[in-house]
Write a sequence for this structure.
């Protein structure tokens, strides 16, 4: 969603701001703008659409200022027009904002009484008016901030400039992230580290309510009450080259291909070499609680929720704990029953998804511990959880989540196996075997990625199909959901994911000769785990074969995703992808990969903007 970049330094800000905005593009946006303060006047440039439209507008402009702010806007209040784009300027104040000021109508009606004139439909403009009023009374940026903040409701981050203080910019984070980047002579404010990774690796993460006053070569951090703080300066884990496409056409394709390494990085540090079993160090803190758990509530949104659905199969099978999976947007509104011996497990790549965060806060109210699986360090979710398990996927720029999903599955696997051990549900030998299966996963992922050529050919045949139906059973059912989501978000094709057993209860009516039907039918080829872990898997293969026949009888074009060496599904299907042999719990991670590649290649053939699909934002920070 909206992205903020601010610069206070020694260079012309234009290039730095535009570059920062491009790095924020992946968050999703529909308009953009920058403002540069020179000679005690802030000049504002805004444009609808893509950043290159803004860039064209600015192509001949040169500035002699060294202070500026920029913004990518994803419309919430008011249409995505130039008029509603940020920065917003009122009098001497120019401001960019992310999030929502919930009581903006209340402020607006007060401001109208004092003859304020509004030029946009945004909630942001009221902020600029409030600042301008305060500054007209003779207050400084910092004093204005301290006066205004207690009157605001909502989750937001903003950065403001004042024509009369040409050496300063001020930023506030409250429920929406804002970080300060530091170099010797320059400082930055940004919504996320990606915007400034190529400039510095030293940052301060603002906590809720904190104010950053950025002066030339110096930054002061204050509490909302104005008390000066000693900030903690952190060094970033990510590097600027991780932000490059490295020769791939799209970030999404690069990220699909990074999965073997990302999974290896996620496993690393969580295997005990003595017992040769999974031991996640962070879980020690909750050991007693975990032993006596009687329920886990998984809460997440979108792809992360699909990971949670696979997690349910893992947790119920390996740890024998009753597990529910909820949508972040539903959880807190349905008055969930949160028992004493339960755990809330939040899953989020960004750690900033508003509904997932709200679920975490709901579980706090009930004093239920919160464990999160998250990719972004120091994100709001990570900061507020009792325990954070970091997926080491590296930055995910493509809007469609790929490596975040498979690393989430990897952590859910590890968590379920360790929980099974803690609860005495699985034997040390079995834990060792499951650990061994996991250690082979990066190699199997790598092998699966080599099927890309074959998948590209299938994509060529499927590119014009109007409807795609994905079906799977057991732990492959969530992969059917995820595969359908991946295809629809980047190719805009109509796709549905279903548990195959539901076919006859309605969706079979959709099947005709134009339907592409993808059947997830992998075998559990780990005979020892078959007994303890997944009796259902191979038994269910017979059932899904009947589902396949029902679809075939109605003319559906079938692609089966099975296991190499298969002689049944390959014979019955128009296309067949044979995955490396793997166990019940590893199979859903492997079958995800060809489905990501299929979605990617169909979307590329359809010519969509794969990394920035229409209407989507990478991180959904509003409800
Ligand atoms: C789909 C996708 C989204 C996210 C969802 C949650 O490809 O990326 O469905 O999974 O918006 O985002 P996070 O994981 O950041 O909480």
């Amino acid at each position: 969603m909206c992205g903020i970049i601010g610069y206070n330094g020694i260079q012309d800000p234009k290039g730095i701001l535009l570059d920062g905005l491009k790095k924020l593009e992946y968050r999703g946006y529909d308009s953009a703008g920058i403002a540069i303060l020179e000679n005690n006047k802030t000049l504002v440039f805004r444009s609808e659409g893509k950043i290159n439209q803004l860039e064209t507008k600015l192509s001949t402009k040169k500035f002699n200022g060294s202070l500026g702010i920029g913004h990518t806007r994803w419309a919430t209040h008011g249409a995505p027009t130039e008029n509603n784009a940020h920065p917003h300027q009122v009098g001497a104040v120019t401001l960019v904002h992310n999030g929502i000021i919930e009581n903006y109508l209340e402020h607006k009606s007060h401001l109208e009484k004092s003859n304020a004139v509004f030029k946009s439909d945004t909630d942001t403009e009221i902020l600029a008016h409030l600042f301008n009023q305060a500054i007209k009374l003779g207050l400084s940026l910092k004093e204005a901030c301290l006066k205004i903040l207690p009157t605001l409701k909502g989750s937001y981050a903003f950065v403001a400039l004042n024509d009369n203080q040409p050496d300063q910019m001020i930023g506030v984070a409250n429920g929406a992230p804002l970080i300060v980047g530091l170099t010797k002579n320059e400082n930055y404010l940004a919504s996320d580290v990606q915007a400034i990774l190529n400039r510095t690796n030293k940052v301060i993460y603002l906590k809720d309510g904190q104010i950053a006053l950025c002066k030339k070569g110096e930054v002061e951090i204050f509490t909302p009450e104005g008390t000066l703080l000693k900030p903690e300066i952190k060094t970033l884990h990510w590097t600027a080259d991780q932000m490059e496409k490295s020769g791939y056409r799209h970030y999404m394709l690069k990220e699909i291909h990074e999965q073997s390494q990302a999974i290896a990085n996620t496993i690393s540090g969580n295997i005990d070499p003595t017992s040769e079993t999974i031991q996640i160090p962070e879980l020690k803190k909750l050991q007693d609680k975990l032993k006596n758990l009687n329920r886990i509530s998984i809460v997440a949104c979108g792809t992360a929720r699909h990971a949670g659905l696979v997690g349910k199969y893992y947790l119920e099978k390996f740890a024998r704990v009753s597990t529910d999976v909820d949508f972040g947007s539903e959880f807190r509104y349905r008055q969930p029953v949160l028992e004493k011996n339960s755990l809330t497990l939040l899953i989020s790549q960004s750690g900033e998804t508003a509904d997932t965060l709200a679920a975490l806060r709901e579980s706090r109210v009930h004093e239920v511990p919160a464990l999160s699986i998250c990719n972004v360090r120091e994100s709001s979710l990570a900061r507020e959880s009792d325990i954070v398990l970091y997926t080491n996927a590296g930055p995910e720029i493509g809007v469609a989540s790929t490596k975040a999903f498979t690393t989430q599955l990897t952590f859910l696997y590890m968590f379920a196996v360790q929980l099974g051990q803690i609860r005495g549900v699985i034997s040390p030998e079995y834990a060792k075997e499951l650990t061994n299966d996991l250690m082979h996963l990066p190699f199997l992922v790598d092998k699966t990625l080599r099927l890309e050529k074959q998948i590209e050919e299938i994509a060529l045949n499927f590119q014009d199909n109007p409807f795609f139906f994905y079906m799977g059973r057991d732990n492959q059912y969530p992969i059917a959901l995820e595969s359908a989501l991946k295809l629809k978000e980047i190719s805009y094709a109509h796709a549905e994911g279903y548990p195959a057993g539901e076919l006859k209860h309605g969706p079979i009516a959709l099947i005709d000769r134009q339907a592409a039907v993808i059947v997830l039918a992998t075998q559990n080829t780990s005979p020892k785990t078959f007994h303890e872990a997944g009796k259902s898997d191979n038994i269910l293969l017979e059932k899904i074969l009947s589902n396949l026949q029902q679809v075939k009888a109605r003319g559906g074009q079938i692609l089966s995703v099975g296991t190499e060496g298969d002689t049944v599904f390959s014979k019955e299907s128009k296309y067949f992808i044979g995955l490396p042999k793997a166990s019940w719990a590893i199979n859903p991670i492997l079958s995800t990969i060809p489905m990501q590649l299929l979605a990617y290649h169909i979307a590329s053939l359809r010519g969509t903007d794969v990394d920035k699909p229409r209407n989507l934002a990478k991180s959904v920070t509003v409800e």
Summary: Confidence is low (pLDDT under 50) at residues 530-534. The pocket of fructose -6-phosphate is lined by residues 301-304, 348-350, 353, 356, 400-401, 485, 489, 619-620 (CB under 6 Å).
